[in-house]
Amino acid sequence: MLRSVIRAAPRVNVLRAAICRPQILTTVRTYQVATAKTVLKTSYDSVEDYSSYKHNLFTHRLPESSAEQSAPLVALHSRLNLPSTFALSTLSQCLNLLFKDDGLANNFGLNTLGKTMLSYYVTEYLLIHYPRLPMSVHNAAVDSLMGTSALYEIGKSWGITVDTTSKLDKFLGEENEFLKYGKLRYISDAEKEKVKETGVEELVDGVTEHSREAEAYASAVRAIIGGLYTHSGEDTAKKFIEDHILSRKIPLDQMFQFSKPSAELVRLCDKLGFDQPISIRLMAETGRASSHPQYLTGVFVGTEKLGEAIGSSLNESKTRAVINALLAYYLYSPINAQGDKIKVPSETNYKFEGIIGIGDVAI
Amino acid sequence: MYIRQLVTGTFRTVKLTPKLSPLTTTRSIYLHKGPRVAGLKRDPQEALVNSQGLKYELTDDNIKHIKTYLGDKYSIPDDIVLQVLTHKSFGNGIKPYNEKLAAMGSKLLSFYLAKHVTKSANKDSFAINGRNLDVLGSPISRELGGLFTLGVFAKQQGLNQVMFWTTRNANLGFESSGELRISAQMMYALIGAVNFYHGKEVAELFIQERLIDQLEKITVDLVSGKAE
Predict the structure, then answer these.
(1) Is B125 close to A35, i.e. CB distance below 8 A?
(2) N or C: chain A end with fewer CB closer than 10 Å?
(3) Confidence at B5, pLDDT banded by 50, 70, 90
(4) Hey, is the C-beta of A317 within 8 angstroms of any chain B C-beta?
C-alpha cells in the first residue's frame, strides 16, 4: 500500500504541473532559414552588399568571340528571333547546366531570374483571366503553362540539341571545339563515357534519363527568358513570354474532378449568399418506359437557372447539370465593355475591370 | 450529454417570395449555438469570431490599420481590405479569403526582389549586362520575400492586429501558433490587392516606398543570426 502511495505521488505532481503550467509557452524557432548552395562556393563582402556576391566555383564567362564561332548557337539565336542586344555568350551560358565545365559559368542565376519572371506573368495572366479557378486547378494550370514538361516541349520545338559526345570522342571525331557552346550541356564527361546498354534504363530516386533531360531543357528555356530580361529589358521579355508561353491553349475544363458536385454547389451558393435554396428540377423527358430514356434537368436558384444537362437516367442528368453549373461559375473569364479580354496589371494604362477570386469552398 | 442539453440555438425564419411567382414559401433554419454537433448549422454570430473574440464584419475598427497604412495613394476598397485580412482557415472558408490575392502578391514580390538584388554589380563579378546574378539563390535573396521577413514586418508595423483566422492554439507564440505564416500571407495579399487595383507599376512603387528598407533590415538580422 505504502509503495503504491509513493508511486502515485509523482503522478500527482505531474498532473499539477500540467494544470499549473503557464499557458504562454516559450517561443520555439521552427522556421528554417534558407541556406546557401555550398557547391557554388559563393563569397561576398557583406551580407547586404548584393553587388559583391560571386560564385568562386567559376573562373570565367565564355568570350563573345568564341560564342560567335559556334554555328548552332548563332542558328538558335536567329531562330528564336532574339534581339541583337542579347549576347551570344549569354545564350551559350543559358544552355550550360554543368557545375564543372572547366570553370565556365553556368545558368544558375539566369534560370532563377527567368523562373521568378515567368511565375509572375503566368500567375497574373491566370488570376486576371480566370479569377474563379479553384486553387488546385489554378496550380495545375500554372504547371501546364510553365511546368517542366511544358517547357521541355517548348525547348525541343526550338531545336535545342543535347551535347552527348565526350571530350575524347570530340577529339577523335575532329569535332569543331566551338560546336558544344550551342548545345545543351548537362551530362558530365564521366557519364558520357559510360558504356550504355540499350533498352536498359537506370532509375535512381525516381529520376530517369528522360526526366533529367526534361528538367535540363526546362532550365534552359527559363534561363533564356532570364537572359532576355537582363539584356533587352522587361518589355521584350514579357512579349517573348506572351508569344511562346501564354499563347498556348490549356484545356482548363478538363482539369476539374468533382467528388461531391451537389454538396459543392450548395456550399458555393451559401458562400455567395443567395437567399433562396438550390432546386433541381426535371425540365423535359422522353422515353421513360423505353430502353433509351432522355431526361433534361436544370439547376435553379429561385427563378435563375444555373445550369442544365441531358442524361440517360434521372441521376445522371442531375449530376451533369450540377457539374455544368459549377463549371460555368469556375471557368468565368471577364471581358470589358467592348467585349475584349481585360487588361492585366503589367499593361500600360491598366484599369481594374475584373473580379478577385473569393476562394474555394470546403466540402 | 443529452442532445437536448446541447440544443441551445435559435430558429431563424426566412420568407421567400420568388419575383415571378405568387407563391410564398417559408423556410425555417435552425442555427445551433454551443458545442459543435455534426450536421447542425452553426450560428454565424457565434462561429464567425476570431481568436481575439472579434466579430467578422466590415467595421472601421477592423480595417483601420490597413487603410491608414495604405493611405490615399495605394487605397483599395473596404471589402477587399476585409478579404485581405481573412485567411482560408476562418469559418471553414465560407467568407471571401485572401488566397488568390496572396498568390498575386507573392509572385510580384519575388519578381521585384529578384530585380532589386541584381541591380548593381562589382567589377570582378560575372555580371551580365551590369547585373550581378550570382546573388540569386543566396540566403539573403531567398529570405527577403520569405514568410519570416514578411510576418515579422506585419507585426512590427502593427498590420496584423486584426486578422480573421483560426488557430489550433492561440496561446502559443507568434511563430508556433501559425500567426507568422498567416501574417506573411496577409502581407502578400496586401501587395496583391494593390497590384490588382493600381497596376504593376504602382504596386512596385509601393514595395519600394513602404516595404523594401524594413524588409532588408529584418532579413539581414535573420540571415546573420541576429533575429530573436
Answers:
(1) no
(2) N
(3) very low
(4) no
> How many other CB atoms are found less than 10 A from the CB of residue A195?
4
- Residue that has been written with the C-alpha cell 498567416 in this structure: B182
Q: CA-CA distances (angstroms) from residue A176 to A66, A75, A92, A169, A180?
A: 12, 16, 16, 12, 8
Residue range(s) defining the domain that contains residue B206:
48-223
Of A25-29, A177-181, A328-332, B166-170, minimum mean pLDDT range: A25-29
* Ordered domains of chain A (ranges, CATH): 59-194+208-253 (1.10.1520.10), 260-330 (3.30.160.20)
Task: Using an 8 Å CB-CB cutoff, list chain A residues near B220.
Answer: 47-48
Kindly report the CATH number assigned to the domain that includes residue B184.
Answer: 1.10.1520.10
For the stretch A230-258, pLDDT in tens is 999 999 999 999 999 999 999 999 999 99
pLDDT in tens, B196-224: 999 999 999 999 999 999 999 999 999 98
CA distance A258 to chain B (A): 18
Interface contact A31-B175, CB threshold 8 A: yes
Same domain, B69 and B165: yes
Q: Which residues of B touch A23 (CB under 8 A)?
A: 171
C-alpha–C-alpha distance, residues B217 and A48, integer Å: 9
A61 has a chain B CB within 8 A of its CB: yes
CA-nearest of A323, A126, A349, A90 to A226 is: A90
Strand blocks (E) in A114-165: none
> What's the domain count of chain B?
2
Q: Say yes or no to pLDDT of A24 above 60.
A: no
